[in-house]
Amino acid sequence: MGVHEIASGMNADPGLLAAQAGDPDAFGTLYHAHVGRIFALCLRLAGDSRRAEELTQDVFVRAWERLSSFRGESAFTTWLHRLAVNVVLTDRRTAWRRSRRFELTDDPAAFERGVDRSEGVELDLEAAISRLPEGARTVFVLHDVEGFTHDEIADMARIAAGTSRAQLFRARRLLRGWLER
Amino acid sequence: MTCESARNLIDSYVAGTLAARDALALEEHVAVCAECTIDLAAAGSLAGPVRALPRRMDPPGDLWPAVRQRLVRKRTPGWGALAAAAVLLIALTSVVTALLLDRRDATTASLASGAAAVRMVEAGYVEQALELEAALEQGRERLAPETITIVERNLDVIAKAIAESRAALEQDPANQDLRILLRTGHEQRVALLEQAVRLSREL
Ligand SMILES: [Zn+2]
Fold this sequence. Notes:
The complex is a heterodimer. Chain A has ten helices and no strands. Chain A is mainly alpha-helical. In chain A, helix 3 crosses helix 5. Chain A is elongated, with a radius of gyration of 18 Å. The two termini of chain B are 49 Å apart. The longest helix of chain B is centred in the C-terminal third of the chain and has 27 residues. Chains A and B meet through helix 3, helix 4, helix 7 and helix 10 of A and helix 3, helix 4 and helix 8 of B. Zinc ion binds next to helix 1 and helix 3 of chain B.
């Protein structure tokens, strides 16, 4: 058991193995390969670029701490994305209790700080997504953009799967209404 | 078809993966349901633009230096001390059991009372250790591999010390010092397991 059992269970990605063994440079390679997708996820969920930067850092620090629990049963990308969603939603729950700062996240201007303004069509949808109420935005991003199932979302967000479905349809209706104006 | 079952089919309908029969049933419902007409239209008009969204976006600044600074290998305070204690324990056990056995009073030794003496000392410890081992098994994946290695190595050391004291006490059941030695071994094992369980819960 111990190190060998953990290592033998996974796709032998040498970079991943080295990072698991505690090599920060190997972890840096993983970071650079995944940071774009994790930042996009954090930005869309948080709706605020500065907060998304903080969350992205937290995600990778947490991933480093938890790397030994990754057994290679799922793809590393899947594991990392679930961990990221968990970090963002946990932060939101505690932050909401601490202060009410997430009232500010429906501000589309805050979102655009992190987006290249030259991307015309995408920007419209991005801005519309950032205007969604938090519950609807969370489900829309996780289901339609990230591809999680309602059961997975229910599990991660601690809501009923039926609530997740209802929020998704609500989000889509709002988005379509805004985009067709 | 109910609105709920219609909604469950909308995504696969838009993706074109719905069986022809289900697709017809959905169309039939949508033709007479204003709500589902809206939902189908929304899903259809958003599918393309959502697919076109960039999957990756670079953060405005390089976050790696800040992340790298926070990557401190978590030290597990107390392991060093416990490991040293375990090593000391086995060294002591070997020497002390030899010394103690030397002065044993042969007349008190009997097989039956030897086993009884061991049972008396070990009562409670064995169950406690089993419970802690079960708790540790549950939290095990939260521990770093090197932590698990340290715990296991030390449990091995302690197990050897316990076995040695136990064998000695069986030969010399009246020896008070051997009882203390055996009890110390069990206490060490429980303390180590408790610390490991606590650590796995903190993480
Ligand atoms: Zn309907």
